[in-house]
Amino acid sequence: MADILTFQDAITDSSKYSKRHLLLGNGFSIACRADIFHYESLFGQADFSAIPEARRVFEALGTQDFEEAIRALESGAKILPCYIPEYSSAVDQMSTHAETLKDLLVSTIAGSHPVNPSSVDEARFWACRKFLSYFIGNNFNNGGHVFTLNYDLLLYWTLMNEGNPFAENPVDLKKNDSFGNDEDNPFADYVVWQGETAAHSANIYFLHGALHLFDSGSELQKYTWARSGERLVDQARSAIEQGKFPLFVAEGTSTQKKNKIRHNAYLYQGYKVLTSNAQTGSHCFFIFGHSLAQNDDHILTRLARGKFKKLYVSIYGNPDSDTNKTIIQRANELAGQRHERYPLSIAFYDAATAKVWGENDGR
Questions:
Q1: Among 1, 116, 274, 309, which residue carries the largest CB count within 10 Å?
Q2: How far is Cα 298 from Cα 253, in angstroms, rounded to an integer?
Q3: Which of 217, 252, 267, 247 is nearest to 105 (CA)?
Q4: CA-CA distance, 236 to 193, in Å (whole number)?
């Protein structure tokens, strides 16, 4: 059986490295609200019972990406009359299903996410900020990065929630995500990605997109509660009606995910930053709440083929459970992919001892 460290022991052990980086998986969200975040994807949560034909569109396209399916239906409705003019009923149905999918996307988002930050207790945010401070805290002067594979807003809300400004020991975090004012519309309800040059100083990356990131076609917009005062569901509905879609990497396989990442400047920038840090021998990485499943090999392979010396992987519950045995095996397989000149050491730590959301998390 693998030796399991406490989180604090892992942090102490990692102090010999110049930077710590953190990769978050879905266990980060589950630890906060297991009643909501035990899901595989938005596609898996969506109810297609009223439009089974639309579900088959996803299957035909080989995707779980709502935007791809919606655009395919809209394009098909325009093209079909050119070839089969008498199929007007099919055209109408395709157009209707495209609009229904937009509503379904919004309702699924709303149904699988807390309505607003007040849905999470303030003490949980404080605990989470303390956890993040080991990687991006000004007090630790670590200069690390946080990479998340989750598309929910919990990380974003935590970064924005600075708690009591009069607290004796405030948790001061670096939280540059490379978004800023739109120079053409500085008072807009959103901010925009400033591009690759500005991203060099960023330390927060949503590697698979997020609910608050919308592709307008000409720019990537980040919607903020502070600027709009609107609930996510209302912002999402308005954006989708305008032809903007949440930036998600929702595909089922690692190869499909990698292809989407490579075709989006923001996602690819995050991928390159993770790769660059993995290639730095004096750094180390922590993984929290990830099963090391093969559908994320496009990310995990970057770690396996890097040069950093140590990877700390969280284990939740009994190390001898089937799930944890698989995680331990997968972690050792990652180490086995390393070039012999740059060996990778693996350590496992007890996820519960990290107290990411306080003494009693929501699992």
A1: 274
A2: 9
A3: 247
A4: 18
The CA distance from 94 to 82, in Å, is: 15
- For the cut 70, the answer to whether the pLDDT of residue 343 exceeds it is yes
Residue matched to tokens 């284990």: 315
Q: Would you tell me the crossing angle of helices 66-83 and 52-61 to the nearest 10 degrees?
A: 100
Average pLDDT of the residues of the chain: 88
Whose structure tokens read 């607003």?
A: 116
Instruction: Look up the pTM and report it.
Output: 0.86
pLDDT digits (tens, 9 = 90+) for 214-234: 888 888 988 876 566 677 667
92 class by beta-carbon count within 10 Å (0-12 exposed, 13-18 middle, 19+ buried): exposed
Which pLDDT value is given to residue 151? 83
Question: How far is residue 179's CA from residue 181's CA, in Å, rounded to a whole number?
Answer: 7
The stretch 121-128 carries a mean pLDDT of 91
Please, is 153 exposed, middle or buried when counting C-beta atoms within 10 Å of its C-beta (0-12, 13-18, 19+)? buried
Give CA separation, 31 vs 112, 116, 163, 296, in Å.
15, 18, 20, 20
Q: Which two tokens stand for residue 5?
A: 């460290």
pLDDT tens per residue, range 168-196: 677 889 989 988 887 778 778 788 899 87
CB 203 within 8 A of CB 179: no
Residue with tokens 């180390």: 284
